[in-house]
Fold each of these.
Amino acid sequence: MSGEKREIGGAQARVKGNFGERLVADALEKNHWTVLERNFRCRFGEIDLIAAGREYIVFVEVKLRRSARFADAREFVTRDKQRKLKATAEWYLSGHPTDLQPRFDVAEVYAPEGDQTAQPVIRYWQNAF
């Protein structure tokens, strides 16, 4: 390394993740959803947001990117990640029974200046997998 300061992983990634999750949670609430959990964790994995509406309980994976230049953010929700999300959702539902239909959504947040972006763009995919 050439003496430049680089922050690796951890804290910086968590700040960015929190920014994207907060934007999506706010958007859900504006559309009459109730956010039940943020960053729900268990031994199977983590779900960024869990929200309830009239018919559905949604398990939302939030992906924050500066741009879609190389690939859409949703493309980073791999089969392995989907498997972990499903297992985590099953664990959640085992302790929180509901009559609502489960659904898996993906929210893409594009913020070219990170958490300093004035007008981030959210693309929301229902029934993503």
Note: The first helix runs from residue 10 to 30.
Amino acid sequence: MKQRILFGALMIAVLVGLLVLDWRLGLPGGWRIVGVPVGGLLGLLIAVGALELVRLVRMANLPVMAGPAVLMAVALATGPLWMQLLPERPANPLNLWLLATPGVVIIAFAAQMARYRLDSPIGRVAATIFIPAYLGTCAACILALRISAGMPAFLVFLAAVKFTDIGAYFTGSAIGRHKLIPWLSPGKSWEGLAGGLALGVIAAVAIWWALGHGGHSIIDGWRVALFGLAMGLVGQFGDLCESLLKRAASAKDAGRLVPRFGGVLDMIDSPLIAGPVALALWPLMGL
């Protein structure tokens, strides 16, 4: 427990420093490309997470092309950064971004034909496409939230998702009695979920107020609380999604990079699935 708290505090300190740097560089007069520090970190995490997912796929006895899968995942994840380099922004950037998905499919088919030919084409192509589709597109939504909605929205999103994780872990460890989904994640409990969601909502509202938005409107506070609740719920679903993959591979953790935390995929599974929902939901909040 002490080691987990120590490494957790260290990672939070590093993340806070990076977010401050990202915020300062994004101010008027800063870098032309918004979100470079966050995008750089996200690209690194996705690269390592993709390698961990390749390992899980192979442990589940499925063929996969590691190189194309990892490269495509990183390219998709950091796409919102590269789009800012275009000399003229397209009238509808969504149309341009939609080309990335068939691009991944085409590259996977081409790599299969070039190296493996008729050796398990369906399984290998499907597994290779799955990795960038899961990690790359979801991470791109997280980065797009930072770029399009700004740092306050991004911080509220992170606080809601990760404090729900933290609250669920400590509440479940202390008073967890009723298992949430025992066949999938025996360590999760209904008590842990309730405690995690409560802490996630409190953290989201506290961050919003700390950033100077608390005096705007009581209704805004309730909207942030609702957003935090939604992010906490979807984030916990994201955690269960990764548990499903680990179960299929008979693995306890996705990796062993961080002591007491497992792999990178074990740390980013909640924000990954919550990212697309946050990107869609935040504009609807009217904040």
Note: The mean pLDDT is 91.
Amino acid sequence: MERKTYASGDCIFLEGEPADCAYLIEEGSVELTKRKDTDAVIISVVEKGEMIGEMALIDAGPRSLSARCPVKTTVLVIPKDEFDHRLDAIDPVFQRILLILIRRLRDQTQATTDKSTANR
């Protein structure tokens, strides 16, 4: 696995892009944002020890959010084939549960974004 460092303001990935890896944050933080019209709504800020980009690898969907570094950030890049290898080792029932949870999270993220921009 590769270690990569991003400068403050760098984009790790964009909403809608296909996924080829996940990222484990080793230092720094990442803002996860959702596009709404011409704005970017911050959905979450994730920090050291957390993972980003895994949902799109699990359900083979596009990236649901964009990831931007507000500060210098170092991540461990987990390639899709390594991630898939680890996911394949999980019981199929739990694989299905993960897919259901990801679908619900994607729906909730969209609903939250819709609601926050409607209140402007």
Note: Residues 35 and 41 are 6 Å apart (CA to CA).
Amino acid sequence: MLTTRVIPCLDIRNGRIVKGVQFQNLRDAGDPVTQAAHYQATGADELVLLDVSATTEGRANAVETVAAVRKVLAIPLTVGGGLGNIADAERLLAAGADKVSVNSAAVADPLLLQRLSQRFGAQCTVLALDAARTAAGGWQVVVHAGRKRVDLDAVQWARQAEALGAGEILLTSWDQDGTRSGYDLELLRAICSAVGVPVIASGGAAHADHLVQAVAAGADAVLAASIFHDGQMTAQDVKLFMRSKGLLVRC
């Protein structure tokens, strides 16, 4: 059996870590290089680094931040935000990313996932799927850092992305993001049952039991930000709790 991965997330804006609620009202949460080194030392299995303003500002991801983080990091690093083409992915991988994630650009051009997968491999191609609940009870895709909702069903998009070559899905609930009320478990179950690739749960974690609930709902990995940025728990603390609940983790 594969171990469940615990992944701190570094949302980056202007070279600093930020954190907000539903992608808005961002507050400063520290220096990415310092925090990356700390998270690695305290048990993180991987890191995700997302440039949250790159797409809305119409620019590429800040590769200098990626390179600086890579210098202090030995664990896998996924980078996203502002990735729009193969050249962008090449720059991020050359700067030290192990995997690249794409959201808005893939929605605009789904075949981008196919091109990324064919060029770099499915194991390197991550779909960042941000989803918001609809009045009808389903979920629709959200792009441009939460600012735009698309007439695209999240579950159908996950299936399509897998067929096009995405090797992993980073699933964030727009409704739960930053609320500290737990992951959207219904959304997680829907996506995890629809695809065969690993799914990373994101959006809403406030304590270790929330992460356990996400794994029970089907997540292969759990991502969190606030609980780590605020010093509430370390990744190792979380993994010890998960192990106490019978989950297989790397401690």
Note: The first strand starts at residue 5 and ends at 13.
